[in-house]
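My current task is to audit a protein record that another person submitted. I need someone to confirm that the token line plausibly describes how this chain folds. Take the sequence as given and treat only the tokens as open to question. This is what I was given:
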Amino acid sequence: MDYVKHNRKAWNSYVDKKNRWTIPVTEQEISNAKNGKWEVVLTPKKAVPLYWFPNLKNVKLLGLASGGGQQGPILAAAGADVTIFDNSDNQLSQDQTISNQFGLNIKTVQGDMRDLSVFADESFDVIFNPCSVSFVDELSKVWKECYRVLKQGGVLMTGFANPLMYLIDEKTLKLTYKQPFSEIEQLPKEDLQKLIDDNEALLFGHSLETLIGEQLKAGFMLTDLFEDDWGGNEVFDHYFPGFIATRAIKK
């Protein structure tokens, strides 16, 4: 199946349903960011350390699969020249609306994160990629494209799910699925069909070798990481941190 098309439709519907990751930031948050008081997330709860960022004034920043009017407007209000690239046109419209409303410097581009050919080599100083790689099956293409469009010394920040999240059945807490995980390939047909019928985005679970090792193979140098969870609201929070965020630079 064309999962990219399906996931675009799913995320467009999430905007209509007011999913938590589609709710734009407030006027107060924009005002705070313009005054130097801001934070953004790559994972559900923990703010990205400010020392991960360069001085954002006039920095060219790509919000990769970062639509929804959340991180992009904050980073733009803090001084960055922001481009948001996302599969969902409804998510992009959230950023464009906020940009127009508050006079921010945000451009929006729709596309598949595995193909950034719309951008020239060395176009950006920073790539900010909140949890989204679980919606694509081939990460090596993503990391190679990120490396290509970043300037020398540029920074890639990305968040992703701990691989264990996709291998353990959440209801039984038994090791159930194989790595790499694909809902399309591994779920029982009736369960997969229900996700499709309910217009839920389809997920892929990647190995640490793919999530981090492929970044290194693309040419990045890892400089920092942290772990996060849902804030104690999900079953896995009681056993292990379900998310990881990494910072890497283009050598």
